[in-house]
């Protein structure tokens, strides 16, 4: 049963980081009536807000869509869990809280590929606009925004020793990864406030929840966008089992992420015909790039057993240790419960042929066989390393016309020979760091993948066996001007007036680091493009014919 169509100026689909920020900016003008639709629920689950609670949010159907990839040939036929936030704040409610912009050359590369206005000098002010940095205002930072950035509230001797070992291996210690060149080693800055997770809902929605011109609806699963005379005009979805539709007088903006946004387009009849026709979906507008260009950071988790080291493995392995962690967090919001999943970071070059850092390390004072399992009983640390610029490309497509059916996620990890080469080099670099004098007092022994593996072929096999996603899918609605691009530089869907996309799916190439804050920057840019009278009525760069 349907109800009458409600009408708004702007309909924003998805209340993840991008949707929360965009709803804030669009509704700042009281003349704009704005609707924000979220498929998940409210962010009122207590473990969302305690930083270590990511352990109880990822893989939990209350807060995570619990997607899985298809079996991956490059990972020895393994299918990986593919967490995505299912709650207000989206992935910012379950992620690692790491504040990372990437490298200046990432954005200069976007601009050089034909996306005017997306170079580093263009996007740096957008990062600063939403930022509230603990160190105050400077050339690279701002304290006037909503997105709180703080230093972590604890240090670990084993991580300090890794940082020193990295310096002995040629990776200098630095204090700030966010000035355009992130090469170096240091503690990550995090999106927390006084030891509590600072998600996008807290930052951008809660301060404005009383605006009468903003409506936020949760538990709304969007099915598709309706076109009228080729223009996007309505969003159709279901809330509590009842079908509803919402009309946009001005624009519909998809902020459903690299999994959700291409799915909505495809169910709307916008996408590649070879995907849609076999599912019985009428092709209203052929856009072959929808769902393609999937990129992700594949991490290799190297684990080292230690002697005479204090790690979370021992602390969390006893009742008294757990009680101590809880009491410390209650006292001053510090200690292990305030930990981001990764504390120490490093950006390095896998080899001398690299012109900038192409590896990112997430170093943790803990270890476990796989995510969701108990910590090891022995002291250990994990050095996870990922290729920042993977060459492999995959796809995300709908499985059927039913929005309740999980998508087909095929990242094609390690399908490009260059990715295998970088993976082997990354393992070798990690071993050089761990062999440096600064870590010798802890007598590290490689537990995973095992130091008996030495040849190129053995290291390729190791990468395929231990590789896993670090949860950074991007690129499935790529920005550009060629025939496989989905949006133009103004984020308008090619050939579909009234429809934009503003989330990580528009990235032409993945950024060199964690992707949450770049997604906020994209939404900030979208708000400018939508609200600026100089860009509002521009004709798309690559105009297409109206749907037949």
TrEMBL record:
Q: What is this protein called?
A: Choline dehydrogenase
- What family does the database annotate? Belongs to the GMC oxidoreductase family.
Enumerate the spans annotated as Glucose-methanol-choline oxidoreductase N-terminal domain: 257-271
Record bears the keyword Oxidoreductase: yes
Per UniProt, where does FAD bind?
Answer: 87, 222
Looking at the keywords, is Oxidoreductase present? yes
Matching entries from SUPFAM superfamilies are given as: FAD-linked reductases, C-terminal domain, FAD/NAD(P)-binding domain
Q: Identify the domain of life.
A: Bacteria
Record keywords: FAD, Flavoprotein, Oxidoreductase
Example of a GO MF term: flavin adenine dinucleotide binding
Identify the InterPro entries for this entry: FAD/NAD-bd_sf, GMC_OxRdtase, GMC_OxRdtase_N, GMC_OxRtase_C
Q: Which cofactor does it need?
A: FAD
